[in-house]
Amino acid sequence: MTTINFDNVYMLGRATAVGPMEQKGPIGHMFDKAYDDNYCNEGTFEKAERTLVYQACDTALRKADLHVEDIEIVCGGDLINQLTSSHYFARDIDVPFIGMYGACSNSSLVISQAAIWVENQMAKHALAFTSSHVATAERQFRFPNEYGIQKKPTTTLTVTGAGAVILGRQKSAIKVASFTPGKIIDWDHKDANDMGLAMAPAAFDTLQTHFKDTGRSFEDYDMIVTGDLSKIGFSFLTDLLVQKGYNLHNRLHDCGLMIYDFKEQDAFCGGSGCACSMCVSLAKLLQHLEDNEMKRIMVIATGALLSPVAVQQKETIPCIAHAIVYERGE
Question: Could you give the CA distance from residue 228 to residue 159 in angstroms, rounded to a whole number?
Fold first, then answer.
């Protein structure tokens, strides 16, 4: 069995910081901090992403009524080469740091790692964060937005934002209940402009693994939410599950379809990026648990582990999906 169960991991504080596109979306009012431009009052997009991380982490600490000195381990990651945003943030806080890369699956990856430290009493308090930025990601993986390259209809829009959580053993309204790590799945997809379709098989595999490990089904969850498959990938995943005989009970959703208003915003197929699943989960999904409207939610964060060099060499795109289950605590 690959699923890890946690008995004593709770969310003590959570926070989000986003850009202007996300602020204007249907859940824009639920984010803790929003900036009116993608520079976030900085001189470059890379510094802007770092500012989003600082803002999210600072707010999460304040909500938990803790200080940096109370944190014993930090787990974080982003999309930029060598985890630039994460490393420059960690440089300034003088706390042991674990940098992690799972592409857009980072949200579940960093939170699960922090949860392992807390569960095994290796850390009293742990901080987990991740971030992405529409301009830094496009420059990294495709073309800078300034080039004005025409985008394909299958494109997903990288979410500009950051999310952070503080985990500890003190009981709260939100419990981190379990983690199912994913395997790298590659169905020979090569289009770097259609990430949703590439990642859907990984979500499919991890979901089946979780159900096999736990003996559960869709009926055991109020919501099961994928990270950023968006329109095409989400439809593909739905088809795969229905063909396999699953009854979805209208409980399957996607963060990339929640963060933007498709009627009012030019969001192509929907949202993607590390901040997509992180910001939607922290701002919207977990609020259902805190308000006691739901009892159990699974978030399956999906990531396309593509390399620009490998794509240029006509390689396929390996993908992964990590699942975390959150439950209503005490």
Answer: 10
CA 73 to chain centre: 19
Q: Tell me the pLDDT tens digit for each residue of 154-212.
A: 778 899 999 999 999 999 999 999 999 999 999 999 988 888 999 999 999 999 999 99
Q: Where are the beta strands (DSSP E) in 87-222?
A: 97-99, 125-132, 157-158, 161-168, 174-180
Residue 250's CB is within 10 A of a number of other CB atoms, namely 8
Strand stretches in 121-240, DSSP E: 125-132, 157-158, 161-168, 174-180, 223-226
What Å distances lie between residue 250 and 5, 167, 223, 287, CA to CA? 26, 31, 9, 20
Q: Which CATH number fits domain 174-328: 3.40.47.40, 1.10.418.10, 3.40.640.10, 3.30.930.10?
A: 3.40.47.40
Q: How confident is the model over 12-64, as pLDDT tens digits?
A: 999 999 999 999 999 999 999 999 999 999 999 999 999 999 999 999 999 99
Indicate the CATH number for domain 4-168.
Answer: 3.40.47.40
Q: What is the pLDDT of residues 239-255, one digit of tens each?
A: 999 999 999 989 999 99
What is the Cα–Cα distance from 284 to 170, expressed in whole angstroms?
22
Residue 227 token pair: 């990270």
Strand partners, 265: none
Judge if 4-168 and 174-328 fold alike in CATH terms.
yes
- What distance in Å separates the CA atoms of residue 181 and residue 116, rounded to the nearest whole number? 13
What's the pLDDT tens digit per position in 69-108? 999 999 999 999 899 999 999 999 999 999 999 999 999 9
* Domain range summary for the chain, segments of one domain joined by +: 4-168, 174-328
Contact criterion met (CB below 8 Å) for 224 and 210: no
Q: Of 162, 135, 121, nearest to 34 (Cα)? A: 162
Question: What is the sign of the dihedral through the CA atoms of 232, 238, 321 and 244?
Answer: negative
Residue 154, SS3? coil
The residue among 18, 37, 84 whose CA lies nearest residue 276 is 18
> Do residues 322 and 300 touch, judged by C-beta distance below 8 A?
yes
